[in-house]
């Protein structure tokens, strides 16, 4: 998606250690018009798929998923929480994931009453690198008996193997911007010219 790629080049910052900061428009300050265009693109890419709910993970996926939901008939958005609280009651699906940015493992939790057997879901998240967060969401959906129709990713680090492994497991991933290389010294970011089809 050229609009997102251009925005990454203009307002993104490459940091040492393969870190791409996009907090000016994606995961701290949110560009709602950009989110809307992203949602429209996912609706085009997943046209013909049944989507009963969109599932994401807190916190950065929530805004993107909520705007995208408007393009899928205003379906509900369910987000996995990363901490237990008194507001989380009843039976729960729980998985565990390792966060590269936070450098620790934490649980991801969805109340069972919000994800049911046979529901068709679209997973959406802001980043895909090693795929740890997605594995947690996939695990929760599988335990719930939900049908994963596809996975929408804003930015995929194509030089890391998360996307490849999840595609090889049979999931339909549509990433709007696939980064093939980035250089902290020059600040440059390179993108794949077409989405992987395998």
TrEMBL record:
Pfam families attached to this UniProt entry: Pribosyltran (PF00156)
Pathway: Purine metabolism; XMP biosynthesis via salvage pathway; XMP from xanthine: step 1/1
Reactions mediated catalytically: XMP + diphosphate = xanthine + 5-phospho-alpha-D-ribose 1-diphosphate
Annotated localization: Cytoplasm
GO BP annotations, alphabetical order: purine ribonucleoside salvage; xanthine metabolic process; XMP salvage
Domain annotation Phosphoribosyltransferase: ranges: 47-147
Keyword Cytoplasm in annotation: yes
Family membership noted in the UniProt record: Belongs to the purine/pyrimidine phosphoribosyltransferase family. Xpt subfamily.
NCBIfam families on file: PRK09219.1 (NF006671), XPRTase (TIGR01744)
Name of protein: Xanthine phosphoribosyltransferase
Organism of provenance: Bifidobacterium xylocopae
